[in-house]
């Protein structure tokens, strides 16, 4: 006589996140990404927002990694 073990595995349920909870984080992330993109792409020379070059030096490797002209 053979014995079968039946194991019940619960099915995963989808987590529903309301859109009104996602929108503020999506806007925040987009603004932050655009700010980083602005600093990496245009923070140099005549269009520099910070005059001492601190931001440019901070994102300098990122500029070269993304092949933006630097010097
Ligand atoms: Zn450079």
Automatic annotation (TrEMBL):
Keyword entries, A-Z: Membrane, Transmembrane, Transmembrane helix
Species of origin: Prauserella sediminis
Name of the protein this chain belongs to: Cobalt transporter subunit CbtB
Transmembrane segments: 22-40
Classification via Pfam families: CbtB
InterPro entries per record: CbtB_put
């Amino acid at each position: 006589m053979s014995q079968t073990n039946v194991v019940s595995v619960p099915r995963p349920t989808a987590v529903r996140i309301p859109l009104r909870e996602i929108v503020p984080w999506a806007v925040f992330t987009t603004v932050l990404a655009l700010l980083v993109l602005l600093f990496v792409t245009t923070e140099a020379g005549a269009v520099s927002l910070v005059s001492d070059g601190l931001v440019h030096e901070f994102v300098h490797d990122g500029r070269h990694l993304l092949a933006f002209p630097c010097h």
